Amino acid sequence: MNMLELKHVSKTFNIGTINEKAALKNLTLTMNEGDFVTVIGGNGAGKSTMLNAIAGVWPIDTGSIVINGQDVTGLADYQRAYLIGRVFQDPMMGTAPDMQIAENLALAARRGKHRTLRWGVTAKEKEEYRSRLADLHLGLEDRLTQKVGLLSGGQRQALTLLMASLQKPKLLLLDEHTAALDPKTAANVLDTTRTIVQREHLTALMVTHNMKDAIATGNRLIMMHEGKIIFEVQGEEKKKLTVDDLMRQFQIAAGEEFADDQSLLNR
Fold it and tell me: 70: which of 123, 168, 188, 217 lies 20 to 30 Å off by Cα?
């Protein structure tokens, strides 16, 4: 079953000005249920723009976006939010820092559901949260009443991942969610990502600058350049890839050398 269909999607910013920028150009992508697709490309390739288009941050110019069989092209971000879980690059986003860990999880668990005047987190909910937090191996299961703003960046990203997956979204969007973390913490968060995606049988789309992570994670990899997909690989062929292979593929497909500093530093 197709979980995501992008059909001939285009988006241009600042039309008619000297800053006009065609960010997406007739982009087409299909993801099957259970796919974990990693996305790489240089600065300005359209990676985050694609994720924002899927999430409905702004309207696209042409084309259509279908999630789990539902055409969401004309829907605002809040109208399609129940289909999507998202983790951003900034660990400060995605959580309420002045609220407790349990309260943040409760907000995520109740998203899109009918709400009453009662707010308190029940004992049953707390037990479920403790169990899920224990799987992160960060000791957060014993800190349910601690304010999220006191957590480290890695702890917050792991918590955000858990929150984004609580309701098993049809599509999980990961927008360079390890880029702001130190290498050890980033590796831990990526391991947590793989575990959650596999355990919950999620369909995930992960943008990253780290070529090694892109190769080692998921079952499909796509490379973007100037708003288009210029290379795609999956399965056993993907597992055999090296970073140098990707560099060569980029040069062949784009007709120029790969020149993104952050990606090159992550070789």
Answer: 217
